[in-house]
Queue: 2 jobs
Job 1
Amino acid sequence: MVSQVRVAGVGMTPFGKSPERTAREMFGDAADEAFEDAGVDPDDVEEVFYGNFMGEFAEQQGHQGPLAASAAGVRAPATRIESACASSGVAVRMGVEKIRSGAADVVLVGGAERMTNLSTADGTAALAAAADALYEINAGVTFPGAYSLMANRYFEEYGGDREDLAHVAVKNHDHAVDNELAQFQMEITVEKVLDAVQVCSPFGLFDCSPMSDGGSAAVLVSEAFAEEHGLDASVAITGTGQASDSLALHDRESITGTPAAAEAAQMAYDDAGVTPDDVDVAEVHDCFTIAEVLAIESLGFFGKGEGITVAREGKTAIDGELPVNLSGGLKAKGHPVGATGGAQISEMTKMLRGDHVNSDAVSDATVGLTHNAGGTVASCVVNVLEVVE
Ligand code: COA
C-alpha cells in the first residue's frame, strides 16, 4: 500500500533583506525549526531534497546538496533541485514520492536563496537565466518584461486594467500585516500602487514581488513513522502534480493561460481525490500581480477571463469565498526564489493546523493547495494538503 505522507514539522526564516547571511545558514535555521516542530531527530533523516536557483550567481556556490544537509545537521543522500522559482516546490514533491515509493520514512525538504547581496541589476540578470537564453535573454527579456507581455495580452483578450491588478497587490499586503515572517508588513492602497514608479508597463513597483533572502524547510514522514513515534502530524500531502511548458513564451499557442499549472493541478486533484471546489484556502505563485490572476484561473477556481476582477470583488480576500495568499504571497511575504515552494508548505501547514497568525479566518478549512511556478510557468508544481486527524 502507498504510504500517506505527513508533514511532521515546518520552519522558515523571516523573509526580507539579510544580505550578509549565506543560503546555508538560512536553510540550517529553517531546518532546525522544522526538526523542533516535528519532534524528529536529524539522525532519522534518510534523504534531503534542497531547492536553490541562483547560488552560482549570488554566492559562487554550486554543489549545494551536501552543503544544505550539513547545515541541517543531517548525514544522508542530499540533492539540490534547480527548477527556477519552483525549485523547492519540486523538492517537496520529490520528498513525497520518495516516501510513497517506500524507499524512505523521513525526508527533509525545503530550500534557500540569497539574493539581496546582489544589486537589482545583477539579481535581474541572474533571474533571467531561467528564461530561454537563445531567444529571450538575447532579446533583452527579463521576468518583469515577460510577465508584462502576458498582462498586456490578457487585457487585450479579456479586458481588465492596471487597477484590477492593483487590487491583487493591496489584498496580499493586507494579508501580510500580522505575518512576522513577511518582508512587507504594511498596508498599501490602490492609489499608491497606481502612483508607484513604473517597472515595466503595466507594472509598477507594487505589481512585483521583491528581491528577498530566506530559507524554508519541512520534515516529511510516512504515516507509519508518525504513528510509531507518536508524532503530532495532523496534516498530510495527499496530492502532488508537476508539469512543464516550453521555456520561451513565443513557443506557446497562447500567453494568456498557464497550461502547465492546469496540468499539474489536475494531476494533484486526481491524486488527492478532490476537485477545485473542495479547496478551502490556497497559496499561489504571485511573482507579479498578473501571475495570481493566471494561477487562480488555471487551478480551476475561476473561469477564463474571470480571475482579473475577483480581488477587486473581495472573493480572494481573507473573508472571501476562497482566501488566496493569506501569508501575503510572494508579493508581500517576499520571494527568495529557491525557498518559496517550501515556504508555501510551511505557511499552509500552519494554516491548516490552526497555528498561523491568519488561521482564524479559515478555522473550518480542511483542504489547502499550494501552487509554485518556475519562469513564466514553464515549470509548475501543485500540492494538495489535507487535515487527516
Ligand atoms: N514591492 C514593494 N516595495 C518594494 C519592492 C516590491 N516589489 N521592491 C523594493 N521595494 C522597496 C524597498 O523596500 C525599498 O524601500 P525603502 O526605500 O523604504 O527601503 C524601495 O522599494 C527601493 O528598493 P530597491 O531594492 O532599490 O528597488 P529596485 O527599484 O532596485 O527594485 C524591483 C524593485 C521591483 C525592480 C525588484 O524588486 C524586482 O526586480 N522584483 C522582481 C523580482 C523577480 O523578478 N523575481 C522573480 C519572479 S519570476
Job 2
Amino acid sequence: MIPPDHPRYRSLLARERIARYAAGGIVTLEGLAAHGRGEAFDYLIGERTTESALLAERTAAALLLCAERPVISVNGNTAALAADQVARLQQVSGARVEVNLFHRSEERIQKITALLEDAGVTVGKGRAERLLPLSHDRAFCLREGIYSADTVLVPLEDGDRCSALRTMGKTVIVIDLNPLSRTARTASLTIVDELTRALPHITEACGVLSREEALYLCSSYDNRKFLSDALAEIQRRLARALD
Ligand code: ATP
Ligand code: MG
C-alpha cells in the first residue's frame, strides 16, 4: 500500500499500475523504459500542468471537435494508465479509438482491446493492413481508422510514426513530456504534460468550447511556442533548484 500522503503518491501509483500491466502482458519492457523517461521529464517540469500545456490541451480539444474523422491511437502504456479516460474522451469527442502497437502481436492487441472495452471504449476492429510509409510493424493500421483519419491523437507516439502520419497530411496531436523528442518536434500539436493529467483536461474542454472558440484555437496555435514554453519552464526550475 502506498500512503496517500507520500510526496510521490501519484507517480508511485502509476509505477505500480504500469508494472502490474507489464506482468499481464499489456505493457512491454520497452514500455517501462519509456515510462521512466516520461517520469524524468515530469520531474523537470514540476509534475503539474503548466498554463501553456493547458492551452495546448484546449487546442487539442478544438482540433478533435473540428475534425471530420478524428481517431485516438492507443498503445499499451496508454491503455494501462488511462483506459477510463480514453472512454470519456471518446464519448465527448466522437473519435474512433484504434489500438496501434510498436511491439505488435495479436495476443497483445486482443488483451488491450479487452481492457479498453471493459472501460467502456468502443474499439475499432477489422483487418489491419500495412498502410503507413514505415518499415516496422507500426505501419499496420485500419483502412477506415487511422489511414482515413484527418486528425489523430497519439499519446506517447514515437517519432517515426508521427512524421509518417504528418507526411500523409494528417493533423497529429501528441502527448509527450519530453519537449526535445523527435515526436514533440514533428507533431502538429504537442502537449507537454503527463498523459493522465492531459486527457481529462482535453475531455473537459471538449464539453465547454463553443464552435467559434474551437475554430479560433484551431487556426491560431503555434506549436514551437508550446515547445519553447516547456523548455523555458524547465530552465526556470533548474535555475532555482538549489535556492
Ligand atoms: P522520439 O522517437 O520521439 O525521439 P523516443 O522514441 O525516444 O522519442 P520513446 O522512448 O518512444 O521516445 O518514449 C515515448 C515518450 O513518451 C518519451 O519521450 C516520454 O517522455 C514520453 N512519456 C512516457 N510516459 C509518459 C506519460 N505518462 N505522459 C506523457 N509522456 C510520457
Ligand atoms: Mg521512438
